[in-house]
């Protein structure tokens, strides 16, 4: 980078939490009015399969999880449902609020939400999950009921490790997304190996070597932060980001771990700290609302 110009903080968006396939179409659909909805299904539907959605309603990941399922059910039902054993079935959807993105997490709320879906709504399958600490508590309700639960948001390794270690009890658990935290770490190294060397070469008067970490102080980031701090300098200084093969003296700055209750001002302070430390590259280990907040501050103050 030329002398006197503003340093660049290049942000790589590593973690993107999926928020449902139907978000874009949700504006065209009416909000559900009852506890179980059968969107697009005929009033006469002798055979149904009801899917229960867990999530923090009113937040982008919880709403997106349900809205995507609602839209998918509507599409299938309007197409005539599906057949099982020669019988036509239609899909119903129900949702319960687990409040799992609340910074002051109360895991019993998620447990109660799961129980309402299982025993009051009598759903056939469960889909959801976002915050690992919450899902660890309420997924047990689905396992005890021997009901398939599909994780669509919590990445911590322990969920699938439970299946490996105790298959008899956890065989009902499946994770569709995201990939687990360990694999996310592998993606980080691959991404850095792709972008760090060419960026460094693009600015001949400035070495792009300072890597910052901005992370939620939660279970899912713990292993990722430790792995990046330890392995990134070894990888960069050794085979040097494999793709380009030129050793780089990468330095990982002291990670910034923040409480998820932070304000916009707090986030801006963290970004200021990274800029003042000379970060050339920032790895955000952030999900959902935190990612939105980070990018709002990043754009507003032109870091």
Automatic annotation (TrEMBL):
SUPFAM superfamilies: Periplasmic binding protein-like I. The keyword Transmembrane helix applies. The keyword Lyase does not apply. The chain crosses the membrane at residues 7-29. Keywords: Membrane, Transmembrane, Transmembrane helix. Gene3D superfamilies: 3.40.50.2300. PANTHER family: LEUCINE-SPECIFIC-BINDING PROTEIN (PTHR30483), PERIPLASMIC BINDING PROTEIN OF ABC TRANSPORTER FOR NATURAL AMINO ACIDS (PTHR30483:SF6). This is Leucine-binding protein domain-containing protein. It comes from marine sediment metagenome.
